[in-house]
Design brief:
Length: 130
C-alpha cells in the first residue's frame, strides 16, 4: 500500500520509510537538547517540545497502519503540523536562551529535511489518488 520516500524498494513496514527513520532521529536530538532546559520548564516548554517531536514519527506510523491512502495522507499532514509546532518551539527556546544555536542547528537541518520529505510523500500519494 504505502511507498517509501524516493525509494524503489518495497516498503514492508513504516520502519522502512526514510522519513520515519529521520523523524526518530529528530526525536532523539530534541530529547537531548531539551534535557538542558531550565528545571522550571520541565512541565512547560520541555514537555511541549518533546510531545510535538514524538508526534511526528507516531503519526507517520499510524497513518501507514491505517491502510487507507486518504487516512495516510491525513496523518502525514498531522505529522507536518507537529513538525512545524516543534520548529516553532525550538525557536522559542533559542529566543529565551534555553539553548544555544549550535545545539539546535542539527535539529534545524533534520527538521527541514523531514519537512521536504513529508511534502513530497503527501504530493506523491495525492497524485496517485487522483
Amino acid at each position: 500500500m504505502a511507498e517509501g520516500y524516493a525509494n524503489t524498494m518495497k516498503v514492508e513496514s513504516f520502519r522502512d520509510l526514510i522519513v520515519w527513520q529521520k523523524a526518530m532521529e529528530l526525536v532523539t536530538l530534541v530529547y537531548r537538547v531539551s534535557a538542558d532546559f531550565p528545571p522550571s520548564e520541565q512541565f512547560a516548554l520541555t514537555n511541549q517540545i518533546r510531545r510535538a517531536a514524538v508526534s511526528i514519527p507516531s503519526n507517520i506510523a499510524e497513518g501507514y497502519g491505517r491502510r487507507s491512502r486518504a487516512d495516510y495522507i491525513r496523518f502525514l499532514r498531522i505529522a507536518s503540523g507537529s513538525l512545524y509546532e516543534m520548529q516553532t518551539q525550538i525557536e522559542i527556546a533559542r529566543n529565551l536562551a534555553f539553548t544555544e544555536s549550535q545545539h539546535t542547528s542539527e535539529i534545524d537541518s533534520i527538521s527541514t529535511e523531514i519537512e521536504r520529505m513529508l511534502a513530497s510523500l503527501i504530493n506523491k500519494l495525492e497524485t496517485k489518488q487522483n
